[in-house]
Amino acid sequence: MNPADSRAAAPAGLELRRVVQVLTELRAGAARRGSGYRVSGDAVLTAAHVVSDAESVQLRFLTEDGDITELPGEPVWADSTADIAVLRIAGDPSPGGSATAEVPPVRFGRVTRPVDCEALGFPRFKLRPDAASADGADPTWYRDSHHARGETTPLSNLRAGSLEISVDPPEYDPERGRSPWEGMSGAAVCSGGCVIGVVSEHHRSDGLGRLAASQVKRWYRLTQAQIDELNELIGLPAHADELTQLPPPQLSPPTPDTPNPDTPKPDDAPEVQEAARRLARDVDKQWRHERKLRQVYEPFPLAVRFGCTERNVFDHWANILRTPPGTDPDPLPLDDRLDGIVAVYKSIPSSRLVVLGEAGSGKTILTLRFVLDLLNARAPGDRVPVIFGLGSWDPTGTSLDDWMCDQLVRDYPFLAAPAEQGGNLADVLLDEDKILPVLDGFDEIASGLHGAALRAFNHTSTPLLLTSRPAEYSRAVAETRVLARAAVIELADLTVDDYAAYLHRAARPVRDSGEDRSDWEPVLDQLREEPRSAGAANLAEVLTTPLMVGLARTIYSGTPGHHPSELLDTERFTSAKALQDHLLAAFLPAVYDPTPTRRGISRRCRWKPERAERWLGYLATHLDGLSTPERRVHNLAWWELGTTMRRSSRMLIVGFLAALALGVPTGIGNLPVDLVATQYGFEFALVRGLLVGLLHGLVAGLVFGVVYGATSRGGPVEPSRLRIQIFGGSSERNARFASRFLLGLKFGVPAALVLVLIDRGVVGLLGFDDGLGGGLTGAVLFPLELGLGAGLVLGIMAWLEAPIDLGSAVSASDLLSTNRKNVVFHMLVWMLVLGVPAGLGIGLTDVPVRGLPAGPVRGVLVGLVFGLEAAFGGGLGYGLSFTAWGQWVALSRIWLPLTGRLPWAVIAFLDDAHQRGVLRKAGAVYQFRHARLQIHLARVFQAHHTPHRPTSPDVSNPEPSVTGTAS
């Protein structure tokens, strides 16, 4: 049952009719007692350890009069990590008992500050003797109920993630070695009419007055499938932000001195709240999809460990913990595994954390886990964690906020929309402190700028999480200073115990005398038993990073022709580096196995491994071409493909296509005009059409090629974040109209004069003047008409442009589609603006034209001819020279596929490579799975296709991190 169905009847507090004593008979013959709470329908919530290994379960309901109703219970769901279980009430209860009463679903809540709470259960210290039997036998015993009331706070037990419940303790401990709270496990902890947790443990070291409870907010660290099941079984909300906040914001507003980041600020505008909510949803969707594609949880998360670094690269603990002057606090315990990163981060009062790790050590998987876990528990008003790849930031030329604003608009175009208080939504979210920057790849910042970046970070106290390779970060700290108030953790190398079960369960099972084994077992046995042997030592050195473990899993998980034992072959792999190169080289053939067809990819996209490797090698080489000796580039943007070609070559390609765009329609349109409107025959019309088309096309190609060369000096044209909006003009749009109109007039008039000179001079002198030029009047009017038309087209387009709205997607294909639609609309406007006036002018005149009487028909035909010439010559030429989509078509959709460097279906290929785990998405751009793979593919491509080309900058150091580091 959905809780929304009975919200009006939701309980206001703890209810006796829901309380259950759980009696479990174990398979070993012993018994266990616990508590439970009926949360909806026939579902009872309890602790998982209460019913683990149960042979049978009985549920005992009580009334205020002490009457008992006992029914069988059936475990239907449990998770030992969260320590919660769901039981179904079975059997036919007697009428009128507590078990038959209809109960609405409970509400679930999350605690943001200390609150009062209560729980009702059956602890051991409430064990009581019953009346003695009449025959003098020993009395029976029972456990009475205990109503525990106390307080809980979200700031205790951060590492464990449990709620600490402070209650009145029992007066004495009745039995040493056993807790007096035994049997309280499974009791629901309620506050404000909401279930906020389930009692799970009593740590005797905490004393008798404190219990630990599995808190509801932490249940959202379960898999999405498990959360969906709990939603069906007990009405748990599908998302953590739907939990009721306790205490309610309006009841306990934060003071100005102590703002509460978990609640919206009173002055948050609705548009800011909506933008933050939408951004959180898009970020969550983006990285959940990425996690699924990269199979991070298949067969289960790899055991990546981290701990406080031993390097001298972090601030004083007093600054990190923000303690008063004169105090000397103890260090924080920061050692944990990947699934504890959010708890570790939240335990740092300064909310600033640096994560160090070598290439492939799992830094980016950590950031992905951090972002998703933080979003799972996000409440309205919380900061939205967003991953930023630092490689493109120049801290000496752009402020951190300005750069992050540009990245937000690039990856989430709806944030380009104007905000009421000025600027765009991205500006406002940054100004209002609604973004939690997750800065990935500090080491990717250009060499020599690390110190400037650290100084920029230290000019602000903004919470952040930063990742880096240790060497670069240590060097930057030594040259400048530490990152203020930031704790620093370092990822540990993997051991055979960390990845043994991971590789075993991902591989093809081998049944041997009933024992569950896999192809990896002999290899893992040798790594454990003979670690000093040459083969085992090389392999152990390679498998210290999640990247290499992931590659090994992909290549040797049942792929035909591969067996893990070959990795121990010292004759074939003489060193750890040779083994790494082998894994990198074997990765593509393994993922481009032609047998399976991935969902969403058509049959024609079954790329052959050798072709895929060639195309991916070109893409890696293209990124090398964009790199400099100081900085490697990892962002693969569709609008930059082909831009590493020589500028002169690109000018020729763009100019040639622009010449075709105007020349072909002009030549074809000239043919019917001369046949119908003049006395000349077909041969004259054909030759004149070819001549005019060639000359007009030559002019267009020369003009647009030179314009492209001039505009491309500053780098590739980025895609427009604008859409076409017919209504809703403003003074700003009117101003854009005027400036663009003048620009069109300045370019249109000279271009028209050149065309007139060609028609009257070159074409006329060659004897192909058809007499339709209109004499002196036509020579004067045509430049004016074309200049006004071009100005009007550019002005109309400027007036119609508006930022992409909140419903726009962020993927590369969607951004590409938006830009394509804009160019097509541009061509349509050219056609209407120049074609309609020409058609009206010719159609309404009485000038006799042979074979074509005056009237609407003649106007439509002439307008169509002029309109098509304008659409292709002006609109498409403009698109090829000035827009990212036009240059993408010219270079990436035509030239590079013609030369075999890319497939014809480029976006489909990139999406397929993303599906196969070769590439990853970061907003509107792609990136290689890891820099090592990028470097390997570039080297292979250059060795086969450009043997004399010098290696790219910094290729000798194959260790750079990239946003998307570990597999």
Outline the structure in words.
There is one protein chain. The model is unreliable at 1-11, 250-267, 596-604, 805-810 and 947-967 (pLDDT under 50). The chain has five domains: 16-130 and 139-246, Thrombin, subunit H (Beta Barrel), CATH 2.40.10.120; 270-491, Rossmann fold, CATH 3.40.50; 496-543 and 545-591, no CATH class; 607-640 and 902-967, no CATH class; 647-871, no CATH class. Helices cover 41% and strands 16% of the residues. It is built from 25 helices and 29 strands. Strands 18-17-23-19-22-21-20 form a seven-stranded mixed β-sheet. A six-stranded antiparallel beta barrel has the order 1-2-3-6-5-4. Strands 8-11-12-15-14-13 form a six-stranded antiparallel beta barrel. The longest helix has 35 residues, at 731-765. The chain starts with 18 loop residues before the first strand and ends in a 22-residue tail after the last helix. The chain is α+β, with helices and mostly antiparallel strands and 967 residues long. Helix 19 (731-765) runs antiparallel to helix 20.
